Amino acid sequence: MQKIKIGSHVKMAGKEMFLGSVKEAESYGANVLMLYTGAPQNTVRKEIGALNIEAGWAYAKEAGIEEIVVHAPYIINLGNTVKPETFELAVSFLEKEIKRTAAMRSRILVLHPGAHVGAGEEAGILQIIKGLNLVLDKNEDDVFIALETMAGKGSELGATFEEIKAIYEGVHKKDRLRVCFDTCHVNDAGYHLADDYEGVLQRFDEVIGLSQIAAIHVNDSMNSCGARKDRHANIGKGCIGFDVLRRIVHDSRFAQIPKILETPWICEEGSDKKTLPPYREEIAALLKE
User: Fewer CB within a 10 Å sphere, N or C end of the chain?
Assistant: First the structure.
């Protein structure tokens, strides 16, 4: 039986940087991890040489961690046709993030496709395609852009499998694209994972292809199917439920795919402040036979 690849989002901060990220992942019993290379809301980034990459990987190999996933920052919006400066920032920053991802020795950069901010779905998708072509046509790094399935809140694009397919169809270097399948987002977008697990995956396979899934975000949802709200819940505490999330973790079709938890932190007993990561307990529960 193949070892299930499972971990969580971890931070990268302080003096240890990537080394600290690996230690945090190890403390959760994880064998993969996901991180941002800097704050997701701004453009402030440490130089690659300050990320402590070599020490982190040396520790990772001892800890049995062989793969990492990088998440692009939220400030990248390739779908914006309303503000040229926002689109230009998205293109230039995505170029830098691909370089940083390659330097981190990751092959997967998860990217929120973008939002049309009122210009309409067609205009937004065409702008995302334009941005991806501007970046990928001149980039030769061995990194996949994994378009994340989105919940569809506001003017988010990528909430339907067809929208992601439309992006694929317009990108020149289609071989550089993959998908990050987020269970909470798929539920909130209107796909009934809880009631029709195989039906949802069959639909994805028909439209895009299961082979295109490069990462899975394993999250329960606080919202009913189709709510288009994107509010993650802890494993087994939401509308998707433990059994379905455990099923996707153990699905043999995804044996080689990193599964990443992004569930909310929890409160210490007697406190109303969320200060405790749930990942060690959630990973152990999901792995239990």
Answer: C
CB neighbours (10 Å) of residue 89?
16
DSSP structural state of residue 113 = -
CA distances from residue 253 to 148, 202, 212, 257 in whole angstroms, order as listed:
19, 12, 12, 9
Question: Which residue, chain included where needed, has tokens 């999330």?
Answer: 245
Q: How high is the pLDDT of residue 76?
A: 97
Alpha-carbon dihedral sign for residues 68, 69, 70, 71: negative
- How would residue 239 be classed by pLDDT, with cut points 50, 70 and 90? very high
For residue 289, is pLDDT > 80?
A: no
CA separation for the pair 44, 238 (Å, rounded): 35
Average pLDDT, the chain: 97
Residue 1's pLDDT is 54
Rounded Cα–Cα distance for residues 125 and 115 (Å): 9
pLDDT at 150 over 80: yes
Q: Do 113 and 77 touch, CB atoms closer than 8 A? A: no
Contacts of residue 95, defined as CB under 8 A and 6 or more positions apart, other chains included, come to 135, 139
Please measure the distance between the N-terminal and C-terminal CA atoms of the chain and give it in whole angstroms: 12
Please list the alpha-helical segments (H only) found in the chain.
Answer: 18-27, 53-63, 84-103, 121-136, 161-170, 183-189, 197-207, 242-250, 279-287
pLDDT of residue 270: 82
